Amino acid sequence: MKKSVYSLVLMDDVVSAIDDMAYQMNTSRSNLINQILAEHVSFITPERRMKDIFDCVRTIMDNHFQIQGQASEAMLSIRSPLRFKYKPTIRYRVELLREIKGKTFGRLSVSFRTQSVQLMEALESFFRVWYSIEKKYIGKYFENGIEYEYSDGKFIRNLKIAENHMESDILGEAIGQYIRLLDTEIKIYFANIDFPESAVVKMENLYNEHLQYMVII
């Protein structure tokens, strides 16, 4: 959204109070004033949209997830433990765009800090299976398919609006449900890592169950 410079005459005490509040919220004076005025006239700014989305994501996460503080209002980080050798932690990071580009409104990255070659190979195998399942069941909803990247133990997926669902609460719920499903699928795969064919069947069955009520992104 375009921004311009305007001159306003404000009381010094008001500006001081705004500065204190902006500092506590880790934002700038201009941004906070913009937010206050936008709320007063019922205008939804990109910052408010992102906050509403993340607030909804937070409500969906249960006690298996740890939500971390983030410096950027466009980013949310979530951690989840994985029962495997060396007890690695799964890190989910959601980054939202200030403006929706085409149908893309953000991206999800999943990473594991590990030096274990065995774990890296297992992760690569998992995401190959995950990609094939998603391509099979929801690839048709996206004009250019589902956009993925995977390298050095880091998985990145663009988040797109597959249907006409642009409301913040719906997008937030979709992101939260997607992370919960992906987290469960990873743990199913690793719990059955010695029986890969069985793991794939269980993954696909669970995905099918969720597909009946999940919002596709």
What attributes characterize this protein structure?
217 residues, alpha+beta, Arc Repressor Mutant, Yope Regulator, Chain: A, 2 domains, 6-stranded antiparallel β-sheet, 47% helix
What does this structure look like?
The chain folds into 2 domains: 8-43, Arc Repressor Mutant (Orthogonal Bundle), CATH 1.10.1220; 46-211, Yope Regulator, Chain: A (2-Layer Sandwich), CATH 3.30.1460. The model has no long low-confidence stretch (mean pLDDT 87). The radius of gyration is 20 Å and the shape is elongated. Helix content is 47%, strand content 20%. The protein has a 6-stranded antiparallel sheet. A hairpin with a 7-residue loop joins strand 2 (75-81) and strand 3. It has 6 helices and 6 strands. With 217 residues, the protein is an alpha+beta fold.
Question: What's the SSE blueprint?
Answer:
Blueprint: H1 12-24, H2 29-40, H3 46-60, E1 66-68, E2 75-81, E3 89-101, E4 104-112, H4 117-138, E5 148-151, E6 154-160, H5 168-191, H6 196-211
Antiparallel strand pairs: 1-2, 2-3, 3-4, 4-6, 5-6
In short:
This protein has helices at residues 12-24, 29-40, 46-60, 117-138, 168-191, 196-211; strands spanning 66-68, 75-81, 89-101, 104-112, 148-151, 154-160. It is α+β, with helices and mostly antiparallel strands and 217 residues long.
